[in-house]
Amino acid sequence: MDIYIEHQSIMTIKNKLLLSCSLIGLLLLNTDTPLLAQSMIKDKKVDHSIHVAGAMSNVMQKGDLSNTINIDTIADKQYLCGLGPLENLSGEILILDGKGYKSTVVNEHEMQVTSTWSMKAPFFVYTHVEHWQDVFLPDSITALPQLEHFIDQITQKFPRPFCFRVMAKVDSAAIHVVNLPAGTKVCTPEQAHTAGQEYILRNQTVTLIGFFSTEHQGIFTHHDSFVHIHLITEDRKQMGHLDSIKFKKGTRLLLPIL
């Protein structure tokens, strides 16, 4: 029993040290861009602002499925990151490192992921991230609510909203791809999501692209969350809106160097 208590204490101290390192890293981001990053970006100006087209609430509550953006018209696609649903809620969109992906439902066991810029969306959020900085993430953070809370806590002085990235191996993850039948009218969020297909991933290496904001609920995050996250697998064969996840140890959280 004494050994167990001592082990727990050591783990608690370790997690506190990791959290302290994260806070120090974020303080550096808030006050002074690292010299290496400064030298890398001094010759090129990148638009780091968050751009929003349309609103989730218009789609989910008012049934307005009209497209507000043609992804191919975004002028600067280098370093582009973004996410949203595909036109008419017929799939999901993810932009990662300047590459566009759309996912559509094939059946309950299979989806199709295509690399393309020929996409439209009823609402969409995007930004440009040229350089990322690792943030220490305690191994005790294994689920999505913990990740959201951790990000909120360590970015109190970070410019918001912002894009973030997670690179991880997962025990499991649940993602969905919206798949609204043509001509269907939407009046509630439940109607929009019941037409989607859920997929369960196990033992996969994945990348998450997410957007955090405390002021955009109903715009690009749901009313009960500060994050909107899409997941794509390492082999680029599965991609969708993240519903839940169980991380393995060694998960990396990255924030943009602004």
Order of helices and strands: HHEHEEEEEEEEHEHEEEE
Structural class category: alpha+beta
Largest sheet: 6 strands, antiparallel
CATH architecture of the largest domain: 2-Layer Sandwich
CATH fold name of the largest domain: 60s Ribosomal Protein L30, Chain: A
For the record, give the distance between the C-alpha atoms at the N and C termini, rounded to a whole number. 48 Å
Number of strands: 14
Cα radius of gyration in angstroms: 19 Å
In spatial order, strands of the major sheet run 1-8-3-4-5-6
Which terms would index this structure?
258 residues; alpha+beta; 60s Ribosomal Protein L30, Chain: A; 2 domains; six-stranded antiparallel beta sheet; 5 helices; 14 strands; disordered N terminus
Question: What this model shows, in words?
Answer:
The protein has 258 residues and is α+β, with helices and mostly antiparallel strands. It folds into two domains: 165 residues, Hypothetical protein, similar to alpha- acetolactate decarboxylase, domain 2 (60s Ribosomal Protein L30, Chain: A), CATH 3.30.1330; 77 residues, 2-Layer Sandwich (60s Ribosomal Protein L30, Chain: A), CATH 3.30.1330.80. Helices cover 23% and strands 36% of the residues. It contains five helices and 14 strands. The strands form three sheets. It has a six-stranded antiparallel β-sheet with strand order 1-8-3-4-5-6, with no helix packed on it. Strands 9, 10, 11, 12, 13 and 14 form a six-stranded antiparallel β-sheet that branches. The protein starts with a helix and ends with a strand. The relative contact order is 0.20. The N terminus is likely disordered.
